[in-house]
């Protein structure tokens, strides 16, 4: 009985975030159609049956999130952990940035990046305005707004989806006193922060292509308890680590933003840096094969946001790519809009 008030608070918080996300998207779309009608892309109609499906998928995710916290898989405080004050201050900046986004969409300009960026430091596919966001992933402004933008996009469920990597990850490092864990494409450090809270004392490393996002991750992780993770700039296709140097690797929301050959390269590199018996845990967008009832939502996401590799990703054989990288798939699950895979490097390798 003592858990009922906390569960009610969690449900109320998630419902509030969901309503806020829906309201923001409806208001911004209506304003865009009024101010910049040429910037909108035609989308497929979402009927009541699909809305019920999405609500059921979200409810299932939130129930699992609550249950795993109650079981002690991770601290219950994570369910309520968000930089509310920071987001409140930055929310007006999202609205102020919308005219630039609309203008870029009208021009069909997806390479509108800061002029001080040396493009030779990055693969060509990375030098784009993913999601049409200003500066792509290459400025402090982009990094400061990213987490709030993702929360709005997923109606407040982004962290709940990220936490689906924790169970297969923690199972893999159980019994290891100080496991060494790498987070590939760590971004602003939200996944590292979740792992840090769930497994205090683990030796954590995050790598990302964006210096700006790594700076944001450093600021966030400095506010967390526990040992500070090591943060490095680098490409997931060429990880700067020795063979077999990690007990586990995570990779969250990266693969759908990569061309096919880069996906395979990242998977091969993750396998290389894993010790024999080590585990890779992936979390990314659902695909058509595991969520055919969400095909309209996946297509609309591709149409509304600049995601140049998403059409291929949602039909890609990720199970096959994982196997071809030399990893043995152990399981996969879908939670709301995210699918999670976990695979091990064979002990005999």
Summarize the structure.
By secondary structure, the chain is of the alpha/beta class. 47% of the residues lie in helices and 15% in strands.
Q: Would you kindly provide a written description of the structure presented here, covering whatever features stand out?
A:
- With 349 residues, this protein is an alpha/beta fold.
- The protein folds into two domains: 4-153, no CATH class; 158-345, Rossmann fold (3-Layer(aba) Sandwich), CATH 3.40.50.
- Helix content is 47%, strand content 15%.
- The chain has a seven-stranded mixed beta sheet with strand order 3-2-1-4-5-7-6, sandwiched between helices.
- Strand 1, helix 7 (190-198) and strand 2 (203-208) form a beta-alpha-beta unit.
- The protein is globular.
- The model has no long low-confidence stretch (mean pLDDT 95).
Helix-strand layout with pairing:
Layout: H1 4-35, H2 48-70, H3 84-107, H4 140-153, H5 158-162, H6 166-173, E1 180-184, H7 190-198, E2 203-208, H8 211-222, E3 230-233, E4 246-252, H9 260-273, E5 274-285, H10 295-304, H11 310-315, H12 318-324, E6 327-335, E7 338-345
Parallel strand pairs: 1-2, 1-4, 2-3, 4-5
Antiparallel strand pairs: 5-7, 6-7
Helix pairs in contact: 3-4, 4-8
SS-derived structural category? alpha/beta
- Rg from alpha-carbon coordinates: 20 Å
Kindly state the mean pLDDT as a whole number?
A: 95
Low-confidence stretches: none
How many β-strand stretches? 7
How helical, in percent, are the residues? 40-55%
Strand order of the largest sheet: 3-2-1-4-5-7-6
Count every helix, treating DSSP H or I runs of 4 or more residues as helices: 12
- The sequence of SSEs as H and E is HHHHHHEHEHEEHEHHHEE
Write the CATH architecture name of the largest domain: 3-Layer(aba) Sandwich
Question: How would a crystallographer describe the biggest sheet?
Answer: 7 strands, mixed
């Amino acid at each position: 009985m003592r858990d009922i008030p906390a569960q009610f608070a969690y449900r109320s918080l998630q419902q509030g975030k969901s309503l806020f996300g829906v309201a923001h998207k409806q208001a911004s779309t209506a304003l865009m159609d009024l101010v910049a009608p040429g910037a909108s892309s035609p989308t497929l109609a979402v009927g009541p049956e699909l809305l019920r499906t999405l609500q059921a998928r979200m409810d299932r995710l939130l129930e699992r999130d609550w249950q795993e916290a109650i079981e002690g898989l991770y601290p219950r405080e994570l369910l309520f952990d968000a930089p509310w004050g920071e987001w409140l201050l930055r929310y007006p900046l999202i609205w102020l940035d919308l005219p630039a986004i609309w203008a870029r969409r009208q021009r069909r300009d997806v390479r509108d990046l800061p002029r001080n960026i040396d493009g030779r430091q990055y693969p060509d596919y990375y030098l784009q305005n993913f999601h049409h966001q200003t500066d792509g992933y290459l400025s402090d402004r982009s990094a400061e707004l990213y987490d709030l933008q993702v929360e709005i996009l997923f109606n407040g469920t982004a962290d709940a989806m990220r936490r689906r990597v924790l169970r297969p990850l923690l199972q893999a490092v159980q019994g290891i006193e100080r496991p060494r864990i790498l987070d590939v494409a760590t971004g602003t450090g939200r996944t590292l922060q979740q792992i840090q809270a769930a497994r205090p004392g683990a030796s954590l490393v995050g790598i990302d292509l964006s210096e700006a996002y790594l700076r944001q991750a450093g600021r966030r992780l400095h506010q967390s308890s526990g040992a500070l993770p090591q943060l490095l700039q680098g490409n997931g296709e060429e990880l700067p680590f020795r063979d077999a140097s990690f007990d586990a690797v995570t990779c969250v929301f990266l693969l759908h933003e990569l061309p096919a050959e880069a996906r395979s390269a990242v998977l091969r590199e993750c396998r290389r840096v894993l010790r024999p018996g080590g585990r890779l845990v992936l979390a990314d967008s659902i695909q058509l094969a595991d969520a055919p009832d969400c095909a309209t939502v996946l297509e609309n996401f591709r149409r509304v946001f600049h995601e140049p590799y998403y059409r291929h990703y949602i039909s890609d054989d990720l199970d096959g790519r994982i196997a071809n990288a030399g990893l043995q798939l152990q399981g996969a699950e879908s939670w709301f809009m995210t699918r999670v895979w976990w695979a091990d490097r064979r002990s005999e390798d």
